[in-house]
C-alpha cells in the first residue's frame, strides 16, 4: 500500500472518530468507547509505521536539533508517522474531554468548538476545554 493511501485511510478513520464524538449525547459511553477504539487502531498503525521506518534505515536526522528534525521530517515516511501520531493522540484527548465533560455536566453544545479545535490544533482544544470546564464548574449551584 502506498504512503498516500495510508495517509488517506488514516485521515478518514480519524474523521469517523471525530464525527462519533460529536454525537456523544446519543449514547455517551458507546461513543467514547468507539472513538477510543479508533484512537487505539491509529496508535497500532503508528507503531507499525514507526517500526517499519526504523527497520528500513531510520527516519534520519538528529532529533536533538531543529535542523536535524527538519531533515528527518523531509521524508514522506517520517511525515506519515508523525501525522498518525497526531491523529491518535488528538482523538484520545477529544474522547477524554467528552467523557470528562459528561461527568462534570458541561453542556454538549459547548464541546463542539472544543472538538473542532482539538482536531485542528490539539493543544489549543485542550486549553479551551480546560477553560470551559472551569467556567462550567463555577456556574453550578451548590445543593
Biggest sheet architecture: none
- Rg from C-alpha positions? 18 Å
Helix run count? 6
β-strand amount: under 5%
Number of strands: 0
Query: Averaged pLDDT, please?
Result: 90
Low-confidence stretches: none
- N-end to C-end Cα span: 58 Å
Class from helix and strand fractions: mainly alpha
Order of helices and strands: HHHHHH
Global outline: elongated
- Fraction of residues in helix: over 70%
Per-chain topology:
Blueprint: H1 3-22, H2 28-55, H3 66-72, H4 76-104, H5 108-120, H6 122-138
Helix pairs in contact: 1-2, 1-4, 2-4, 4-5, 4-6, 5-6
Question: In a few lines, what is going on in this structure?
Answer:
With 143 residues, this protein is mostly helical. 80% of the residues lie in helices and 0% in strands. It has helices at residues 3-22, 28-55, 66-72, 76-104, 108-120, 122-138.
Question: What does this protein structure show overall?
Answer:
By secondary structure, the protein is mainly alpha-helical. The protein has helices at residues 3-22, 28-55, 66-72, 76-104, 108-120, 122-138.
Features:
6 helices; elongated; mainly alpha; 0% strand; 143 residues
Amino acid at each position: 500500500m502506498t504512503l498516500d493511501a495510508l495517509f488517506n485511510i488514516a485521515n478518514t478513520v480519524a474523521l469517523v472518530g471525530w464525527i462519533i464524538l460529536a454525537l456523544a449525547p446519543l449514547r455517551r459511553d458507546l461513543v467514547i468507547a468507539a472513538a477510543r477504539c479508533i484512537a487505539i487502531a491509529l496508535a497500532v498503525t503508528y507503531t507499525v509505521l514507526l517500526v517499519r521506518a526504523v527497520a528500513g534505515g531510520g527516519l534520519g536526522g538528529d532529533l536533538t536539533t531543529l535542523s536535524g528534525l527538519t531533515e528527518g521530517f523531509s521524508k514522506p515516511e517520517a511525515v506519515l508517522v508523525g501525522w498518525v501520531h497526531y491523529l491518535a493522540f488528538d482523538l484520545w484527548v477529544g474522547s477524554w474531554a467528552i467523557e470528562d465533560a459528561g461527568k462534570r455536566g458541561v453542556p454538549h453544545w459547548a464541546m463542539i468548538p472544543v472538538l473542532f479545535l482539538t482536531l485542528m490544533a490539539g493543544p489549543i482544544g485542550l486549553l479551551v476545554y480546560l477553560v470551559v470546564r472551569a467556567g462550567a464548574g463555577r456556574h453550578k449551584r451548590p445543593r
